[in-house]
Every structure is written in C-alpha cells, then in structure tokens.
Write a structure and sequence with these properties.
alpha+beta
Length: 516
Amino acid sequence: MSRMPSSWTSTNFKDINFFQSDILNPSDFPKEEFEVYSVPSFFLGKPEILIGSSIGSTKQFVQDADVLICKINPKINRVWKVSPKEKLRQIASSEWIVMRSPLMNASYLTYYFQSPSFREILSKNLTGVGGSLTRAQPKNIAAIQVPVPPLNEQKRIVEALEHQLEQVNISLEQLDDSLKQSANLPRSIFNAAIQGDLTRDWRKDRNIDKTSWTEKRGSEIFSFITSGSRGWADYYSASGALFLRIGNVQHDSIEPDLQDLIYVKLPEEIEGKRTRIHVGDILVSITADIGRIAFIKQDLGEAYINQHLCLARLNDEYQRMGEYLAYFLAAQEGGQKQFEELRRGATRAGLGLADIRNLKFLLPTYEEQLEIIRCIEEQYGFAKQLETQYKETQVRLQQTIPKLLEKAFRGELVPQDPSDEPASVLLERIRAARAEEANKPKEVKIRKPPMKKITPEVVAQIISDMPNDHFSFDELRELVATDYDTLRDCVYSLLGDKKLNQDFDQASVHFQKVKP
C-alpha cells in the first residue's frame, strides 16, 4: 500500500470485520417473503423480493450497512451496501463475502472495495477454470490490507466522492442523451434530402422548383432483381468469395457493413452464381428486419448474397443514379415508409421481388441528385464526427471514476484535519469491541427437527424450552422451521387454549409462558 497520511493506519480485512455467518434454508419458510441480495439482482440495482419456496439454496442473513463483495470473477466490480431493513428478513447469496464493521463508515468501505487497487489485489490467486467460473478466495481477502483514515475523514471522503461522482454521472447521462440524438441525425438528414429540404437554396439560386422532380417505379429503374438462394453453408470456407448476409446491410446508412464476413468457395456450375454482386448494385433485406440498405460503390471482388437479401441492378438509363436511389430507399419518408406499409399489408413474412418492382421513387434532376449526395455526405460526416466526440468524452469521464477512488484512498481527495481523532485510536476501539464480542457466550439456538410436522403442541414444546419467559413472535419464528401463517395459527391456538399469554408494551406485542 502506498504512503498514507500520518493520521491514517491500515489493518487486515478480517481485523475490522464483525460478521459471523448465520445460515438459513429459505425453503423451510415456503410462504415467507424475503429481501434477497442475489448476484443477478445486483445489476437491477435493488434486491429481489422472493418467497422461501422459490429460493433454491441456503442463504446468509445480512443487515443494514453490511457491505457485500462478490467473489465471482472479481474483475467485474460488484460491491453492494445493504439498505436499512423495512419489513422483510434480509438474506444474501453465499457468493457474497460480507463485511460488517459498525465502527467504520460503511459507505467509505463500499467505495474502497470498488477501487482499482482493491480490485487488483482481489483478482489475484483466484480459483476456478476462468471467466465467470473463477472465484476470489475468502482466506486471501481476509489478509488484504484496508486503509483506515480517522472516522471524521472517512465521512468527508464519502461526501466528496458522492458529490463528484454525482457530477460525473450527470455528465454521463447528458452525453448518453446526446449520443441518442446524434444516432437519429442520419435519419433526419436522409429525410430532409429526399424531401428536397437540403437543396432548397440550391434550387432557388437556379430558379427551379420541385416540379422538376419525377416519380418512377422500381420496374422502370431496375433491369435485374433477384434474391439469394439457399444451401450456402455447404460452401463456407476460410477464404474465397465474399458472402453477404443480412448483418452486412444496415438501417440509416447505405454503406455495407464489412466487419463480420463469411467466405464461400463455389463449384464452377452452381445456380447461386446469378447473385454475384456488381458495382452499382443496391442490396435490400427482404426477410426478418426488412428494409436495410447497402449501395455497392466499390468493387468487392467476387461476392454473393444469401436468401435474406435482394439484389437490384439498375438499367443503363439510371446506372449513374444508384447512390441517390439507395439514399431514397434508406430514408424514413422514402423507401422505409413503403416497406412498412408492405409489411403491414403482407399475407406472408417478408417482401417479394414484385414488391421491389412496385416501389415508388421521387427523382430530382441528375444535377440536383449530385448536390443532394454532396449535402448528405457533408452533414452525415458531421454527425459521425459529433458521435465520435461524444464517445471519446464518455470514455474520458468514465476513466475519472477509478482515478477519483484512487485519489481518495491515498488521502489526496480531502484535506486532513489535525483535530480529528487518529485512526490508530479508532482501530484500538475496533479491536476492543471485537474482543468483547468474541468473549460473549454463544447463543444456543433451538431448532426444530426438519421432518417433524408443526402443530400447536410442537410449538408449545419449543416455547417451554426457550430460556426466557417473555419473547416476541420474531424470536419464536427464528426457532420454528415453518412459514409465517402456520406459526401464527399455532400461536392463536395456544392463546385460545390458555396455554400462552399475550402481553403488551409500548413498542410491540410479546408473549409469556403459562406455568404448568
């Protein structure tokens, strides 16, 4: 551990931990609701509420301000502070290592166990085969050194971290909103383009209007329309011709996505070769997620499509207009609106080749098409640049969180106060409290044999064995392996038979044994 301020000290994890495991089997209480701190529920941000019969394994009792450290794959940072108890008993998976240190600040410990230095130590000497199957070893965690500042400084550290992390999180939320908005920019740009908004000033300067635009059908524009054939898996290869699938075409873009590629090697004579892609072709997804578009602007070499894509090849008259036509198909108010109408009215899934032939296109003059493409590329480039900047800022902000934590636990986040009680005094108080706890007589818990049926007579016998004449319902419940309703009914029966008395105080209802 790096050099600490003089008012700090450090000690082993186990030396500040008061937790003593107390296990129960929730299935012994099938109708009782529990507040369950499971590992999966960590990602939900709140414990699950489950009845005992639905919980498949033993659990450990936890309480307010316990800090839970997940030992599964410690590289994934899962640390959870238990919330104050409301009504239900609180239990946790055995995959959590529990830190209970009532004389320390629980939030301070929570932040420390999330810090990079602690996570690095935790990730050493793992057991398991790898990935999510690895576990941190409790005996190693027990020996980890924990920095202990004065208690008042712990509080100041927590306050400073909460304030600064809140600011970071607000900024991250704002960036997330900005990223969502930037992701919608291409759609807005494409719509503005095919509705003539991007080139309004261009037309005005040339004293022309949208009456120069004409409507054409796909059957007039395309000379060849086909879809891929089936059975390509037999020809998959580590190299060869490209084989494009639905994942290689996108929404809100006309660029083919060439990140995840498959290759095929075909025999000389095979029917699928009719789908070989040429420069200038337009690809459209026609099954499942219909309406994804790609324009083949550059030579891909030998390349083919599968049965989920349609290849539309332009005739000679419209060959030079392919890029604009692809943008039209990608625009929400152009091709996408027509695809949606076809999908809603279809009697079968997907689109047919006839649907592509019947598509309607609005065509400006070729000169205006070129200007539209220029405007799209300019604004689309700006949108992607903005998105990149947002993502880079997001990464930088996320990196400030571990830096803040490291700074806090080096004693550099808040100033030291000479009037603070030194941490060494706090540590002595913790040691004394732990020694006192260790010297207390161990509570002997009376447990009912698990197979014995719970009846009023059985409950009466358990009550007679209890050391105190006065007790609460919750104390009795700890000793009787049954659900809430069954125990309540037994207690009512004993009260009715005068085998148990009920007395009241200002805080709660208690019961009193009836002497034989």
